[in-house]
Amino acid sequence: MPKIGMEPLRRRALIDAAILAIGERGSLDVTMSEIAGRAGVSSALAHHYFGGKEDLLAATMRHLLAELGRDTIAALRQSDGPRARVSAIVATNFSPSQFRTETIAAWLAFYVEAQRSDAMRRLLRVYARRLHSNLMSALVDLMPKAEASRTAEGIAALIDGLYIRRALKDGEPDARSAINLVEDYLAITIAGKDQAA
Fold first, then answer.
1. Closest of 103, 140, 127 to residue 23, by C-alpha
2. CA end-to-end span of the chain, whole Å?
3. Residues in contact with 79: Cβ distance below 8 Å, sequence separation at least 6, in sequence order
4. Which fold would CATH assign to domain 60-196?
5. Do the beta carbons of residue 35 and residue 43 sit within 8 Å?
6. Exposed, middle or buried by CB within 10 Å (0-12, 13-18, 19+), for 190?
7. How many Å apart are CA 19 and CA 196, to the nearest integer?
8. pLDDT tens digits, residue range 98-140?
9. Whole-model pTM?
């Protein structure tokens, strides 16, 4: 007889195991059996909870998106003013819970998979739209809307690019350096707008 209340715990364990397995492998070339073994459950139970590997990978991506969303909302609530809100969004993307080796590898693997999978492509579009919307909500108070949109695109490109560059390096991720690069871009962009005004 199954233990009551274990399903959410096992689902989360399988998602965490998927992130670790993808992080170690550097790709989505992992099996349900490998992931189940890491989570301490049988392969059959993993299939019972998620159906197949695609379903588990989609659930893992949704988990990463939800976690990033919760972290961003919490950071924005503590921010005072539009400039601080942009900085909070940037810092959240490079926070210890987001900018760690296995999570970076998982994000990159999902980007690659999005070239083949409509489901993954949709999830990545959700991420991109949410990031752009969050940035725009602050940037429109700092500059005209068209310039704010271009600046939001630049910040998003820097965040994604820094994740890619991080994935190609050995050692621990350097979040402070990544944040500083994005903040420098933002400061230069804002200064340029002020001089043009």
1. 103
2. 70
3. 85, 87, 88
4. Tetracycline Repressor; domain 2 (1.10.357)
5. no
6. middle
7. 46
8. 998 889 988 888 888 889 989 889 999 999 999 999 999 999 9
9. 0.87
